[in-house]
Amino acid sequence: MDFGVPTRRVRILVQGLVFGLWVALILATRHPLDSWLAQHVPVSLFLRIDPLVMTVVCGGMRMAVTITLLAVITFIISVLLGRVFCGWVCPLGTLFDAYGWLLRRLRVPFQGPSPRWYTFKYYLLFIILIFALFGGVSPLMGLDPIVLLTRLAATTVNPFLRNSNELFWTVSEAPGYYGFFFDGATLFLFISIMVATTKLSRIWCRTTCPLGAYLGVISRHSVLRRETSGCIHCNICAVHCPTGAINFTNETVYNESECIKCFLCSEECPVDANFFTYKSPIPAFSPSQHPVTLGRRSIFSAGVAAIVAAPFLFRSGGTTTASKKLLRPPMSREERDFLASCIRCTECVKSCPTGILKSAGFEFGIRALWSPIMVPTEGLCQEGCNACAEVCPTDAIMKYPIGEKYSYKAGTAVFNSSKCISYTENKYCNECVKACPTDAIGVISGWVPPSGIGSDVPAPEGKKVTRPDHIIYERCVGCGACEYECNKIVFDDSAMVTTSQGRAVPTQINLAQLGKNKEGVWVF
Amino acid sequence: MGILDKIFPVDWFHLDPEYFPQDTRSLFTAADVLQYGILPLGKKHARAGEGKQILNVGFVNPGNKKARIFVQGFVSGNKEFRKYRAYRLKIEEFLLILQEIYELFPALFLQQPVSVCPDVVLYLEQLKKEKEQAELNKML
Lengths: 524, 140
Fold this sequence. Notes:
The complex is a heterodimer of chains A (524) and B (140). In chain A, 40% of the residues lie in helices and 7% in strands. Chain A is built from 22 helices and ten strands. In chain A, helix 8 crosses helix 13 (210-218). Chain A is elongated and about 100 Å long. The two termini of chain A are 42 Å apart. A three-stranded mixed sheet of chain B has the order 1-2-3. The longest helix of chain B is centred in the last third of the chain and has 22 residues, at 118-139. The chains are: A mainly alpha (524), B alpha+beta (140).
């Protein structure tokens, strides 16, 4: 079966359409999720068809998380046809190809054989899978191309798109905040990748991409194989192969695990000697195929490093019990399960309309790196919004009916009267009380200024202002509204502090309330 | 140029006498090959289902206008081909093909009154000078 001539244009068209869909879905990932696209297509579609996400989350959770099972389709296609996903679907791959088009136009030489360390990605994958075996998502999962691009869009591009509602939060926040630094790190990583691509086409796919490695491993026995009968050894295909899958010294030899089925070799072959045909996957390796060979010593080293590092990282990881300051979005899974299922894509951060959700830095341990946290000094968890749960591609934040938002506590506020200006300066404020959506702040009635609004003028002598007194635990939902408002008055030294105390986690909730099989799992 | 058209620069074509395309070997006469520094390098179907094909032509110097005009004229006058695609050749490999496939030896054709591609002549002269210099160095 010859795919020779028309495939290049078809591939460019498909890549363009798929990339356009990815951009549209990223733009649609915002509260409220009421656009036509968001209502008809899952906004996290690309993450949900990522088989590495499926494997890591299901492995880490020790169960089949149903929401990720869409990736089975990609898995099966890869097993049968090879790394078609990399060549035709991956948005990062499309960016590389578009960048390559530009480089060719500028006559920049950037093609050639892969470096000897191209197997590095397999070791990375090995470490990620060992982490999953230990029940956790390694921060290395952030190197997955879909996760990386989504995080790039969410934490470096998105803040600039939100200026219309005065939410330049990532840009304007205090420099000491770790999340800000890591947003820059993602951007720096992306720029570094593009600079490296200037030297060698798809260098990320060749050397580092863990998803590419994963697809490479599962596609070793694909039935769509390259055939080179009549090869005249002109070296054109090897030069044009974007992933260096074709051997430079003998063009008839190629590496099936590295081939992304872009069919560029067929297109560029001057004599129609390169084509793809369906073959029996048995035997797996004919003389024309050059399998990836990994050093036993390197595999052993990577395995030992991961096994030693995993428990260490897990111990250093923050938990709700370890840190009351660690606030997860409402209806997040129990902390261990959350860290085992959150892939650090920051789709939730992207969708959050108020900017309360941030990407964590090292403040809660390496294990929690890039995971979403609520920072009430920066925003509040808005009433009538469940966007973070709706967009989460792995159900790390479980979906819940929007009307039942306040049935599930995200935490509880703590009131420190020694920092409240109603106590320290006897000035009327009451902003926290006004902001609380559930009337969870108990008040001691007293003097109120005639205007009825907060004032810099203290109460007349002998009188005490109306002031907050205590938090009604049963009513407080940990939305952070009180802290957010208080922080506007007493910057960075809020009298109201939201803690994770009493956070409702799905395991404690009667799941029947959420509907049938709402947990979305099959335990095995 | 359309946005989806190819924009690759001229590729180097590695020549090996053992795998030299046989089907187009005699398309150009030995005199043309020598004069323009060109080699026919096989053909390829332009589009699936289309009868016309693309002729691959190797150039010692792809910037040689005379050679380009000659090849363009040849392709236009030949119904078998829709267009040609240019490749760049290394002179050493070109000379090797001349000897092995076309049985044209530099020592012979330089002495005969035939028109030879200026790039090839220049290369051979340079080679000769280098040899003489090397011999001189040996003697010294």
